[in-house]
Amino acid sequence: MKSNNIKVTSMRESKRDVSRELAAVFVDGYQKDLAFLSSDRDKLIDAFEKMVCPDVFYFATLDGEIVGILACSNNQKRAVTIDKTILRNSFGHVKGRIAYHFMKNEFNKKLSYPDDTGYIECVATTGKARGKGVSTALMSYVLENEDYHRYILEVVDTNEIALRLYKKLGFTEMERKKESFSKTKGFKYRIYMELNVS
């Protein structure tokens, strides 16, 4: 798909290995959440490059550079598989073990959704791509090219830009869960949204 020089491709169909570039966008997009592991961006990229699942990732390029990512996971495959050994080797025994403990449920837990449901996760764009329609292009591409009848995603209540985008694409709120330690995390609720396309 092309739009304003934005081209969206699935990672599995890419003619070259984009794991590192994709991991870089992931690390930059989730920098606040990953800061407890390390402030060394390259070290974070090295670790997550080995844990992304190419079968569910899509990436957007703008003038040939990867500027956005999106994973459409399912009940068989998640976007990232948190690996205890990789975390320990990358961040040390103690920090790696703690990171695995806190991240495994977020990423490794099998989704309980039926086969016809896609789960949108890990949507991120680079700073220079924001406001240029990259997230919209990624979402539109996945909705047009995947075969799921229903899509679910999760967004925090403070991410107003993403909430507006998802509503514009037809997603509606289905559940709102109060977050523990919300002051520390910087948001009060996780909002779950769905889109039925059958």
Automatic annotation (TrEMBL):
InterPro entries attached to this UniProt entry: Acyl_CoA_acyltransferase, GNAT_dom, YpeA/RimI_acetyltransf
Transmembrane helix among keywords: no
A Pfam match: Acetyltransf_1
Domain N-acetyltransferase: from-to ranges: 13-198
The keyword Acyltransferase is annotated on this UniProt entry: yes
SUPFAM superfamilies listed in its UniProt record: Acyl-CoA N-acyltransferases (Nat)
Transmembrane segments: none
An MF annotation (GO) of this entry: acyltransferase activity, transferring groups other than amino-acyl groups
Keyword terms: Acyltransferase, Transferase
Protein name from the UniProt record: GNAT family N-acetyltransferase
Organism, scientific name: Virgibacillus indicus
